[in-house]
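Tutorial handout. Part one gives the primary structure; part two gives the three-dimensional structure as tokens.
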Amino acid sequence: MFSFSIARLPRIEFGTGVIKKLPDIIASYGSRILLVTGASSFTNTNHWETLINQLQQHAIRWQHCVVAEEPSPKLIDDLVKTYANQSFDAVVGIGGGSALDAAKAIAGLIKIQRSVMNYLEGVGPELPYQGPAIPFIAVPTTAGTGSEATKNAVLSVQGEKGFKKSFRHDKLVAEYAIVDPDLLASCPPEVIAANGMDALTQLLESYVSIKSNAFTDALAISGLQAARDGLIPLYRQEGELQEHREKMAYAALLSGITLAQVGLGAVHGLASPLGAFYPIPHGVVCGTLVASATRINIQSMLAREPSNKALAKYLHVAEILCQKRFIDPQAAYNALIDLLVQWTNELALARLSHYSLQETALDKVIANCRGSSMKTNPIVLKDEEIREILLERL
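Part two.
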């Protein structure tokens, strides 16, 4: 339990107002940067104008590119070519997971001028990445993916022959993660819901991962407590919104740290083909599947591996999220699943059929779900068990 290895993490600046530190941090790397933002989550706020004014005061020159949707390998290659002749001192990603992942990939490739397809896991030649990468600074404006704390840039090609794969290396980890809960104020309810359930799922899956350890468990528990207290009231826009934003930004950050260290599970294994073959937002996949995947994991372990240590962890998660002590483990499992179903319904997370998934296509999804995330699920699920997860939310 107390033997573990922790991979590189960013330097983290967390708290309301820490966005004000960004210009000085940028200036510490040089005077020319590439700003990668989402479509509007940051640029339509007062923070954008303030940042631009501060960059001018610091005599920092910048180029700006927008990533409005989940990045594809072609988009990354095109952006790298566009800026090939620029000499940037850093890349700054400001936005949700898509903007951060794109910025991360650009920072890793702009000096070497090779297609990202050379380095994607499970696609192409999978050449060893040797860098060099230029410094990357991550500023999340949503609370979900935890990309600010990970070494992987997730890229997608959507359609019948699509895929969703990672460009992954320690050299891609951000130098700084600037996590300011104030930046979540521009998130609409549907983004809060999907991203919040993504963070919750990442915390839960990393907690029961076969690679979990004492260090990551402590972070996952802390993150689960924060998500429990922050997600629903933030979605409802009730109570102290600043406090709820802080809790969700914290939960998302911790989910990125834990997933980067110990991996995920069945939900994220399925999210890869579902997000590739269908236009399903990643957070929606996580939110709509987490209850059914939790039920099937528990059911499978009770039937085939009753001594699996993840069963005790699921009981502990039930006590954390339900804020109740359980003597009977089965009562705990039932309460946990019921709560996850309740949240899924309240957050209005769509069923998979809403995105045109049909039962006849499940074999293809199942055949493509056994990537890196599925390998750290607490039990190896049979195809029929994976099918049951999908059918429950079809």
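Part three, for discussion. The radius of gyration is 20 Å. The chain has a mean pLDDT of 95.
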